[in-house]
Structure prediction request, 224 residues.
Amino acid sequence: QKEVEQDPGPLSVPEGAIVSLNCTYSNSAFQYFMWYRQYSRKGPELLMYTYSSGNKEDGRFTAQVDKSSKYISLFIRDSQPSDSATYLCAMSDGTASKLTFGTGTRLQVTL
Amino acid sequence: SQTIHQWPATLVQPVGSPLSLECTVEGTSNPNLYWYRQAAGRGLQLLFYSVGIGQISSEVPQNLSASRPQDRQFILSSKKLLLSDSGFYLCAWSVRGGGYEQYFGPGTRLTVT
Prediction:
């Protein structure tokens, strides 16, 4: 079993839809969580990070962490074609300078 | 602001040839530095990370090596490339002693023929 599981997609939604992207993890020591967006043939770009359970909002993006269920989510409101990319979750247990990544979910927002 | 550079952007090399990929970070001091490889459908594989000059930790046994000759310079090398070394190589940095977020460079796409 992988430490971090992420549905690879692709996930196709119409413009304006609310998108929910999710990761589950097995290591209860993970306590720092990040979401990255990666456009095709580009490096990942940090979207959001959160160090606690609950919700964190930034514009159209909301990151949600449920440590009791070992489940994190990224919500995108009013999705745009420019949101079409692969979204990677990442997490750390804080004991080393390393992150564990999910394999990414490919999102396509259609006109 | 901080900037991370990688070069070359793309590279096509024959099997058995040497490799040198370079990464430099600007606008920060004493960063942690990382090399990743991303293969299609397999996510990000951490290859090496460094918490200081000359301090390199290897995550995966392979024919690649890394060096950090200067504080903000990280080099990935190979003496003889294999076909399996093809992939998208990403350099990243994070604040030493700070948060856990990592910031990625633009990547180098390597094709070994």
